[in-house]
C-alpha cells in the first residue's frame, strides 16, 4: 500500500513539473523570433548611379513552391535606386539565388554550421518530436494517466505536452556577378560520372568580364507551436533584408 502511494506521489509530481515546463515554454516562446545571417560576407565595389542595374533570377527547388523571394528582393533593390532589367547582358549586376531547403526542426539551426555556397545540407526534422505521443514513452504516460485518474490532473499534463518548441529554417544559396573593366580567365572543373565505375574530368576555360561572389543565407523563425503560414512572411523579410543588404 505504501509503495502504491509513493507511486501516486511520483505521478503527481511529474504532472506538476511537466505542466510547469510546458507553461514556461508557452510564455517564453509566445512571440515570434526571427534570425537571419550569411555564411560569408560579400563586398561589392562602389558603383556609380548609372551602373545601378541588376538582373534577378530566383529559383525554388524545395517542395514549398509558394515561398517567393524574387518579388520582395526586386522591390527592395528598386527602393535602393537600382533598375531591375529583364536582360542579363545589359545589367551591371546579376543576382542569382536558389532556395535549397525549408525545414521544420525541434532545435535551433542558427546555432549549428549551415555550410557555405554549394555545400551539402544537414539538419534533422521534427518528426521524432511530433511522433512522441505514439512511442513507448507516450503509451507509458497514457497508462499512468489511467492509473492515476482524473484527480491527478493528468489531462492537463497531456494538454501541456502538445506545446512544442518549433523552428522553421530557410537556406538559400546566393551568387552575385559584378561587371569588371578587365576580362579574366575563369576555369571550371567538373567530375562527371558515367555509371558506377567511370569518372570523366572536365576543365572548361573561358573569358569573363564578371567578378563572382557566392554566399549562403540562413533565416530561422522560432515560436511555440509555430506553423509555416505564420513564419513565412518574417522569413521572407529576413532573407530579403540580408540579400538586398549586400548592394
From TrEMBL:
Protein keywords: Cell outer membrane, Lipoprotein, Membrane, Palmitate, Signal
Topological category with respect to the lipid bilayer: Lipid-anchor
Predominant place of localization: membrane
Positions of transmembrane segments: none
Keyword Transmembrane: no
Source domain of life: Bacteria
Alphabetical list of InterPro entries matching this protein: TraT_complement-R (IPR008874)
Protein location: Cell outer membrane
GO cellular component terms, semicolon-separated: cell outer membrane
Residues spanning the signal sequence: 1-26
Protein name: Conjugal transfer protein TraT
Native organism: Fluviibacter phosphoraccumulans
